[in-house]
Amino acid sequence: MQLIDIGANLAHESFAHDLSNVLDHARAVGIGAIVVTGASEQGSVDAHALAQRWPKFLYATAGVHPHHAADYTAETHAILGALHRQADVVAVGECGLDYFRDLSPRPTQQWCFEQQLELALACGKPLFLHQRDAHDDFLAILRQVRDRLGACVVHCFTADRRELYQCLDLDCHIGITGWICDERRGAHLIPLVKDIPADRLMIETDAPYLLPRTIQPKPKTHRNEPRYLPWVLRTVAAARGEPPEQLAASSTATARAFFGLHGEHLGRHPPAEPQRSVRTCV
């Protein structure tokens, strides 16, 4: 089986000392490509730098997470716009609304989201969306421009049936993480994932977060990695009543089409470069 992890925060500091090994482990379990999430101005620059160092294996998104909305400036807007012109930056985001933590004021989150929707309209690339406890405002903002946008994925979907169907009605894709493997808070997703059309469903780790609780034997640390994506795959496949191989094929095909990844490139990776300070073309 070959898989695509559509969301991994590999620019996170927890990967700074062993990223080459992390990528080797991912390849060993059949990960053919990883989309590195950009969730802040610097994080987006760093995600792009990683995609440059591991071409045709790592790709990047560029955006500002609602947690960091208060840091969004005119310079941020320009930097993200420049990043979106790079071929290995395959989506705008992570962007959206998060009222669960409210780390930035809600009006600021909404403004920041609108700014990034304008960037998506300008570049025509897919949107990588975040929403938590803000569904009604999130949908109201997205609806205003949805008919002019390209593909959108609601990443790390954790909500209920109403929110799922409203996202699907807006022609959004859905990203499922190891949240579904958590019997304490993700059990409600088990009956829902069978309602997601195969050509709208993708899987992700959101590493280093959301380590699947189903992993056996238990890892020595709580850091999630792309190599654990098969545990998400198996849980989702079981919930949908289909073989893991079938879900692997459909979710990989969906991710290729969504991000514009060419299948012939997957699985053909040059050796990783030696660790060195990274540069960005921005």
Describe this structure in words.
- With 282 residues, this protein is of the alpha/beta class.
- The chain contains eight helices and eight strands, in the order E-H-E-H-E-H-E-H-E-H-E-H-E-E-H-H.
- The protein has one domain: TIM Barrel (Alpha-Beta Barrel), CATH 3.20.20.140.
- The protein has helices spanning 19-28, 41-53, 74-84, 106-123, 135-143, 161-169, 229-240, 244-259; strands spanning 3-8, 31-36, 58-62, 89-98, 127-132, 152-154, 173-176, 201-203.
- Helix 3 (74-84) runs parallel beside helix 4 (106-123).
Shape: globular
Number of strands: 8
Radius of gyration: 17 Å
Give the CATH architecture. Alpha-Beta Barrel
CATH class: Alpha Beta
> What is the end-to-end distance?
36 Å
| Tally of separate domains | 1
Neighbour order of strands in the largest sheet: 1-2-3-4-5-6-7-8
What is the number of helices?
Answer: 8
CATH topology: TIM Barrel
pLDDT averaged residue by residue: 93
Secondary structure category = alpha/beta
Enumerate the spans where pLDDT stays under 50 for 5 or more consecutive residues. Answer: 267-282
Largest sheet: 8 strands, parallel
| Fourth-tier CATH superfamily name | Metal-dependent hydrolases
- Strand and helix order: EHEHEHEHEHEHEEHH
Roughly how much helix do the residues carry, as a percent range?
25-40%
Strand content: 15-25%
Quick overview of this protein structure:
By secondary structure, the protein is of the alpha/beta class. The protein is 35% helix and 15% strand. The protein has eight helices and eight strands.
